[in-house]
Each structure stands twice: as C-alpha cells, then as structure tokens.
Amino acid sequence: MRDQALRFDSLLSAASTGSLSRRELARRAAALGLGAPMIASLLHASSPVAAMAQQEMTLSFDAGATGGGGGKPNSAATAYCYIVNGGSQFEINRMVDACLITLDASLQEFVGDVADSWEIEDTTVTFKLNPNAKWHDGTPLTSKDVAFTLNVLTDPATLSRWGGAFKSIEGYAEAQEAESPTSLSGIETPDDQTLVLHLTEADSGLLGGFMYVCILPEHILGDADRATIDQNPFWTENRIGAGPFKWVQLVEGERVELEANEDYHLGAPQIKKLNLLFFSSFETSLAAFQQGSNAVAAMTSNDVELVEGIEGAEIITTPAGVGALFINVSQPDFADVRVRQALSYAIDRKTITETLFQGYADPVSTEVPYLEWVQPDDANPYDYDPDKAKSLLEEAGWDGSKTYELWYYYPDQVTASVMEAMQQYLAAVGVNVDLRFDDGSGVRVKEFDEGTWYLTYGSFGVQPSPANLSVIWGPQGRRTYHYDSEAFDSAMDAALRTYERDEQAEHYKEAIRILNEDCPWVWLFDRKNLIAFNTKTLSTGDAPAWGPGNVLYHNNANEWVVTE
Amino acid sequence: MASFLAQRFLHGLTVVLGVSLLIFIAVELAPGDVVDAMMPPEAQTSPEAKERMREQLGLNDPAPLRYVQWLGRTFTGDLGYSMTSQKPVINIVMTRLPATLYLVGFALVASVVIGVATGTIAAVKQYSWIDYLSTLMSFFWLSVPGFFLGLGMIYIFAVRLGWFPSFGATSAGASHPAFDRMHHLVLPGLTLALELAAALTRYTRASVVDVLHMDYLRTARAKGLAERRVLTAHALRNAFIPIITVIAVRIPYLVGGAVIIETVFQWPGLGTLMLNASKQKDYPVIMGLALIITILVVLSSLIADIAYSVIDPRVRVR
C-alpha cells in the first residue's frame, strides 16, 4: 500500500511538471490499479490550465503619472539602470536584484537580504553575508560585489543620485576630487562573506542609504566605464541579478518576463513564471484587472466602487508621501512664522481627507507621519481655525492685496479638486492664490532654481529613514527650500551620532516638533497609494507584500503562491 | 512618369527637412530640458551635478550646432541614444515600428473595406433604410472621440464579454503566436478604423451618387450593359478618384489617432513611445520619432499620388 502511495506521489509530480503525456499518465495510473477519481485528479493536475495556475502570475504596475514636474523617467515596461535616478523601475529591481539590507514593507524595521547580520560599533560597520548568495549566472555573490557597488555609486563620474548617502565612509571626500574609477579607502573585504565599512564619524543614517541600492555584479560591470555605466546593455539585455526571479526578456513596450531563480539564497520562489506589466493609464490597467489578466493593479480613489464590485478583489493601501504646501520662506511675504502658521490653520484637512480623498488619506501636521517611532506627542495638529488664522495674519501685518502663484504637479482629478478647495480656504482668510499646474514644461523647475517661487503643493515622497529629513531641512536643502534652523540642525546631528534607537527617537522627535512649530511647509495629508489586489489568484503570505513605489522594501516574493 | 516620381520625391525630401527643423525649434523653445525632467526639485540634485549631466549629454552646445550634428548623423542612420533608456533611438524605433505599421495597416484596410462598401451600397440604394442606417452610424462614429470609443470597446468586448484581450499586442507564452497577435489586434484596430470608415462612407456615398447621375452612365445603360457592369466598370472607377485623395489625406490622421488608441490599449507602438518620450523630454527619441512619422506620412502621400496618377493619367500632365 505504501509502495502504491509512493508511486502515486511520483505520478502526481510527473503530472504537475508535465514530464509525462496525459495518455502515458492514464496508462501508468491504471497499471497501478488506481480508481477513476484518482486518475481524474492526476489528469487534472497535468492539464495545461492547472499547470499555468500553479506557476504563472502577471502583475501590473502604474508606469508613473509623469504629467508633472515630479515626473520620473519611466515608460511602459522599460527597464532602466537605477543608478542615476531610479525609483520608477524599483518594481523590477525588487524581483530581479538583491540588496544588502532592506526595510520591511511597512518601513518600520530593517531586514537582511544578502546580509545575514550586521554590527555597528562607533565608526565601524561590519556586515556578514549569506554564503548561499549567487548571481543568476551561478557566480557567487561576495563582499567584493558590495564594495564595487558602493564605489560605483560614490564615483562622481556616475552622477548617481544615491551616492551622497555614503558620505560618511572614509575616502568619500577624496573620491569626489579623484579621477574615475574611484574607490573608497574606508571599505574593507577581509573575506568573501565579510564587508567592513570605516566611517569618519558615527552615522546612524547610513543604513537608510542602502534602501535605494541593489548590488551590482563586479564580474560583469567591473570594467565598464563609470560615466556611461547607465548605457550598458547589461540593464536591458544581459541583466544578471541575484534576486528571487531571473530576467528572461523585455518585450519592448509591453512587459518584462521573469522566471524563478531556483538558487535564490532566501529560498526558491513558488511562482515559476512572472510577468510584470507597466501601464501608462489607470483605465487600461484596471480593465485588465477586471478581466482577470493580472492580479495586481494600480488604482485611484475614484475606482474604489468599481474594484469593490470585483469578486475576490481587495484594496491595499501603501504610503504615498505626505501632501504638503511647500512655502518659500525666503520670500519676505512668507518669512514671518505667524503667516505660515496661519496657512496651516486656514486649511480644513479633516473635511478634505473625508470628502475628496474619500478617507484614503489622513489629516497630518508633521513630517514623515508614517514613521511612528519618531512622531512627537506634543505636535500642534493645527485643527481648522479660520479665526485664529485671520488674527495671526493681522498680527503679522499681512497685506491681502497680492495674489500668489500656487503650483501643483499631480495630474489626477483628486488633486485638482483638493487644489480648488485649498484656494477657497486660503481666500477665506485673505490669502489669494492663483493655481498653476506644472505640466512638466520646466517653468516651475526654473522658478525653483532661481528661488522666485512662492507656494507649491507636492510631496517629498516616502522617506524610509528620518535621517533623510536633513536632505530638505538641513544644509543640503537650503539652496532649494531656504529653511535655516540651528535648533533643527543640532537635533538632527545628535540623532545621527547615536545608534541607540530610543535616543535617536528623542532627537528626531525634537527635530520634527521644531518643523511642526516653524511651518516651513504646511503638512496636510498622509496620502495613500491604492492597489487593487486579487486575493483569489495570489496569496502573498502574512507580511505586507506592497510598500511605497519609491523604496526597495523587501517583498518576500519568493513566498508568494498562486491560489487559483 | 520618372520625372513625375523624381519631382514628388524631392517635394517629400523638402517636407521632411522642413519638418525636422520645425521640430528642433519647437523642442528648443520649450522651457526645461531632459535634466529638469529627470531631476525635479524634489530629487534634491545639486546644481553642479545637473550641470555635469548637461555637459555629458551635450546639452550645452549651441542649438544650430546640435541640429546640424543630429542631421549629419541621421543620414548615416544614427539617431542618437535615448536619454532615459540609454538605448540607440534607431533600435527603439525599429522595435516599435512594426506594431504601429501592423495597427495602422489593419485599420487602413478595414476602414477602406467597410467605408467603401457601405458608402457604395448606401449610394446605390439611395433613400433606403440601409442608406439612412449607414448615415446614422457614420455620424455616430465620427462624433465619438477615439479614446472614449476605445474604452467603451474594452468595457464591452474585453471586460463584459471577455471575447478579446483588453491590452497589449501579445500574451506571454501564447501557444499560437499568430492567432494571439490577431486576437489582440481586433479591438484597437477596429477602434482606429471606425472613424476613417465613417468618413469614407460619407465621401464614397456622395461621390458615387454624383457619378450615378452622369450622362455617360445613361449612355452605358442605353447601349444595353447590365446594371452591375455599369456600376463596376464605369461608375466606381470614376467615383473612387476623389476617395483615394481622401484616404491619402487621412493617413496622417490615422497615424496621429494611433497615438491615442495605442495609449488606451497599451499597444507597444510608436504612439505610446511618442507620448512617453514627450513626457520625459527625451529629445533624441522625440526627434527620431517625428522624423520617422514624417517619412511615413510623406511616403503614404507619395503612394497616393502614384495611385492617383495610375487611375487618372491627367494628373501627371502639368
């Protein structure tokens, strides 16, 4: 009997892999003396439809609304080198590439990817790498690949947007003046599984820098010219990663086809074939979702009713970045903190989130509200109070006769309605604004470069680490955003110099409280990205499978299973 | 005929050069550049890095120099590199061109077949219910915008009835690739074809009705020819001359319409490429595409000219 069960198992496995023809399968099953129901189940397992259901999955992503100046260079199913700009093709990177460490999708904790563990002691950071990590061509992934990646990113010839995050590694300053190819003196690789970084000073923000970095294969790109590395055919033709899925091909303008990496260091994926589609219109993407062609699709709050009507569909929300009113504090009219606080009191965040965002946004008044561990308890919520706004403006001697340009760059209908509402709320307290949509023509960018802008509604995107706040509010951001606060700088500095999370949290809270009081921007809505997800066809396990599009969070894609 | 062709060819070349210059000037006058598009203020790129990038991409050279350089390289088939995807523009265009030709070609054939047949029947059966119905439908297809029609088609035939795929030109791992391609073509192809078909129905009907009242047809009937013969050998040949002009004039609209239809159906052709490149200010791609589309349009009008001269030799006489 046991023997028969074993033989049945082997037949079942042959059925699901398709290694036996259906006729041969039926013949052997009959020879085993199996009953009709057993034979039927074997034949079902071998049917092409069942095989597809077990192995193949199609996911679609928003190719990016590029109508505004926030435009990312992306187009339907086109793979780019992430080094220079990145962000828009992270959906591909998450599947094909491996990182040293990443964040979990809820952005609260670091998780190891190729790094098994890491230790930080004052100015030395030591990573231990997973010995099973391999490139898709079978070459072992070692600490030298990680060192190579850091050297490429910090090489000024590469023009990488992400290199600055590693400025605390010894040799960074020298590399900025040196001839390409540069290498940082503070990187050591004592053996294939150990990477040591020597820092010029303690830097708790360093780990956050890895959230945008996929490891590059030195054995393929080692000799590539750094200045043109983004044009290397590697990115679109000979793509070798170390992530859960292998690159099969890019069908230009349509999709990226991937297959399971059976040697993946965190476990072979359950899904054997994966197609990534990139739609440039929500309507088309949702129609395909409705039709059942793909299991995941980007959507807007206008589509909620439609998606809720689809059997098995669930709406997932992920942080989309805080919608804020950017204020040019260097303009004399907005230099007085009371004027900026008045703007904050003048806008009824609660009503706007409930009606226009249909609940898919929360009213907020602080930076990075989704990073709960750094939120100060005593932040001013700036509840809607037009009378207070008027009296603050009066105290500040506000001259209501002028009209200011208010730029916005999101092309969707919800934003357009929010802008009209804000215009009315501001007019009600005596602040007149003209709405101007940035269609990507570059006029707004020019105004930012020249410092002549007044107000803009937009978002700084989702920040995986509170250390990133100094990019805008610290010395780095001063040229564009003009905010200058010694108290803020010293709170941020203190947070960056300690590795104690509680201590860090205290300093970050202080920094965020200062911003909340100073109102260099008016933080308004913690917006959400909406994703339609078909639970009938795809199960992504217990961990949240989706996070913000602009962060390389860890997605556990190797554990996903096709359920129908 | 040879001198006629040479003349037409020279005309075409002048148009292509003129258009390329106009496109260059338009792109030049637009505020902002590819660096601004790639690095918005939110990206926090230092002005020095932006400047280095402009230098590296050759954006700091004087405009006339860049135009001449671009034109020179173009003659050797080198359209430069896309600034965003870093691939040679000619390769990108060539991978996308077949999809657009396929879509536009199908739409053209379908619209001519539907339009000319319906128009002719409507004219022959003037004031019958077929005539009224074709008039009604023509006005309907002419009035409904392409993108709306496309979304309607997707909703009815893809989402509700599930007869056709709603997007793309192929499916991953299709077992019958040729059938799969045809299957994907039906909705976008018909959406694109219907507007032209409607216009052709109107023109054909008017043209055939005009011809049917000509004296020489009465003569043909008087000498005892069968009505079918009168229609095919005498009436339609003359009636189709203006139709060919209409088709030739409409081909550029078809290519233009493809930009919108391709976006709605996520069709991997030149239209979606053009849209994305414009959003990203990817100049080499925009200019390369504009050039290719101009050549396509000039070629199609050249073909129309030739066809016209074959049907009616008088146009060759100057």
Shape of chain A: globular
Low-confidence stretches of chain A: 44-53, 63-78
Q: What is the CA-based Rg of chain A, rounded?
A: 26 Å
Strand content of chain B: under 5%
N-to-C SSE series of chain B?
HHHHHHHHHHHH
What ranges of chain B have pLDDT less than 50 throughout 5 or more consecutive residues? Answer: none
Beginning-to-end CA distance, first to last residue of chain A:
31 Å
Number of helices of chain A: 20
Question: What can be said about the biggest beta sheet of chain B?
Answer: none
How many distinct helices of chain B? Answer: 12
Q: Biggest interface pair, residues each?
A: A-B, 67 and 59 residues
Largest sheet composition of chain A: 7 strands, mixed
Distance between the first and last residues' Cα of chain B: 12 Å
Mean pLDDT of chain A: 83
General description of the model:
The complex is a heterodimer of chains A (564) and B (318). By secondary structure, chain A is an alpha+beta fold. Helix content of chain A is 32%, strand content 20%. In chain A, strands 11, 12, 13, 14, 15, 16 and 17 form a 7-stranded mixed sheet that branches. In chain A, strands 1-10-9-8 form a 4-stranded mixed sheet. In chain A, helix 1 packs antiparallel against helix 2, helix 1 runs parallel beside helix 3 and helix 12 packs antiparallel against helix 14. About 5% of the residues of chain A have low confidence. Chain B has 318 residues and is mostly helical. Chain B is 77% helix and 0% strand. Chain B has 12 helices and no strands. The N and C termini of chain B lie close together (12 Å). Chains A and B meet through strand 10, helix 10 and helix 16 of A and helix 2, helix 3, helix 5, helix 7 and helix 10 of B.
